[in-house]
Specification:
CATH architecture of the largest domain: 3-Layer(aba) Sandwich
CATH topology of the largest domain: Rossmann fold
CATH class of the largest domain: Alpha Beta
Structural class: alpha/beta
Distance between the termini: 16 Å
Largest sheet: 6 strands, parallel
Shape: elongated
Radius of gyration: 19 Å
Strand content: 15-25%
Number of helices: 8
Bound molecules: nicotinamide-adenine-dinucleotide
Length: 247
Amino acid sequence: MKFPAELIRQLAAAKSVAVLTGAGVSAESGVPTYRDAQTGLWAKYRPQDLDTPDAFRRNPRLVWEWCVWRRNLMTRAAPNPAHFTLAEMQTRFPKFQLITQNIDGLHQRAGSRDVIELHGNLMRTKCFDENTVVADWADTGEVPPRCPRCGGRLRPDIVWFDEPLPEAELDRALRAATACEIFLCIGSSVVVYPAAALPFEAVRAGATVVEINPRPTPLTGHAHFVLPGAAGVVLPGLWAQIKSPPL
Ligand code: NAD
């Protein structure tokens, strides 16, 4: 793939880069995205029946089993070249901040550090009543299991629909988006707010915004560079050129 020379020049000279990733960055690892019509999880399940506090109150067993199913799928998945490239990029720029909407932990497994997880992490569990992380619990066969402290039901430590994002993470993400020179938006449909506001905040603050996605999104018309294609192909290709620019 041929990349715009101006983009290579700007990236090679950049001191401060922020990246927002969405479900598309894990698609090539075999983790289905939400909104991809043919392969998305929502083609088979109604998310509003599964990923809300109300759904959990109505049918905690169904929601817990859905969480265990996805957790197993994500545990079996391995990071792909896009995850590994992002892990390598963090060593190149004086300031580099990775922000993800993903809950699968694949960035950390690829070696990324200090990842801002806007929607939590499915590998963690918390108490529905106390809202505190729980690492161990007794296996009594009850589904979902009970909190060892208060006896409340356990749930995944992810942000469901109708729930606020963790404030500290969102603040840090907003600061990174508005302070960076270059903002990459990779594999996100840019429709789930408030995360979807970040690339637009970056545009407003004067950053060069780059989108990597095989399909157009609401950001496409606003981005300075649009690289249509799969993250696991486009990002390593772009990075190879930054490391050794063509003569
Ligand atoms: P989304 O499912 O709404 O959209 C995915 C986007 O990725 C689409 O725009 C699609 O065109 C693009 N895409 C598909 N394959 C791609 C590829 N190979 N390379 C690059 N882009 C590709 O995802 P989202 O915007 O992250 O949004 C929503 C929510 O989905 C988030 O809340 C996130 O927590 C949750 N989610 C996470 C995972 C995960 O952790 N892996 C999986 C499914 C959903």
